[in-house]
Amino acid sequence: MSKKKTETFEQQLERLNQIVQTLDDEGTPLEESMKLYEEGIEIVEKCVTYLSEAQKKIKVLRKRSDGVFETLDFDGE
User: Which domain holds residue 15?
Assistant: First the structure.
């Protein structure tokens, strides 16, 4: 049994772009459009999860008034 190679975030975005371009083509049959739409939703969910996990890893370095540096979790807002 072969394992499916994990695609990078950038590869997933490229595939999503391809799907959008195909869906924009008025000649794409409805059945294919539905399959592509479902694939696109799955890719978006993977990308959101990836970005959420990456955000948890980001730290902010701040210098306190006493001159000591501290790290804080990235809030993102």
Answer: 9-73
